[in-house]
Amino acid sequence: MLDLGISKMALIGAVALIVIGPEKLPRVARTVGTLLGKAQRYVADVKAEVNQAMDLDELRKMKETVESAGRDVEKGIRETTANFEKDWNEATAGLSHPDDPLPDGGWTPPPEYRRPDKNWRLKRGATPQWYKARHGVRRQVQSGAARVARFRPKKTNR
């Protein structure tokens, strides 16, 4: 690239002042500055596009790598599952199902589970009223207004 130091810039400025003249020099300098800015922006855009294309290629390669690894894992899982099912079937081929009765007829399946009946209303009704009153068990439904009135602080005369 060009190696422009302060001395070279001063020499270029002096030659430009002599050749162009002091009246047109500011306009020419402004035009040169805008052209250099546009050129820099163009170079930066080209660099960005090149970098983006390179990143896109890298991402494509990475995507292909991940997809192939996923296919390999899926293939391995399928093979493992098939081998397991084959081994399982071979191992359980001579066994009978536990619900099947034995050939001698001595085995019967257990009865189906039935939850015991619990009548919680009967239990609550068997509790004495004095016990409910002492321990704060509600004996009847209260409205919201009655509940507020029940727990409202008492008025005291001072």
TrEMBL record:
It holds the Pfam family TatA_B_E. InterPro entries: TatA/B/E (IPR003369), TatB (IPR018448). The keyword Protease does not apply. The keyword Ubl conjugation does not apply. Residues 149-158 have a biased composition (Basic residues). Residues 87-158 are annotated as: Disordered. Transmembrane segments: none annotated. Gene3D superfamilies: 1.20.5.3310. It is found in: Cell membrane; Membrane. Keywords: Cell inner membrane, Cell membrane, Membrane, Protein transport, Translocation, Transmembrane, Transmembrane helix, Transport. It is a single-pass membrane protein. The Tat system comprises two distinct complexes: a TatABC complex, containing multiple copies of TatA, TatB and TatC subunits, and a separate TatA complex, containing only TatA subunits. Substrates initially bind to the TatABC complex, which probably triggers association of the separate TatA complex to form the active translocon. PANTHER family: SEC-INDEPENDENT PROTEIN TRANSLOCASE PROTEIN TATA, CHLOROPLASTIC. Belongs to the TatB family. Part of the twin-arginine translocation (Tat) system that transports large folded proteins containing a characteristic twin-arginine motif in their signal peptide across membranes. Together with TatC, TatB is part of a receptor directly interacting with Tat signal peptides. TatB may form an oligomeric binding site that transiently accommodates folded Tat precursor proteins before their translocation. HAMAP family: TatB (MF_00237). This is Sec-independent protein translocase protein TatB.
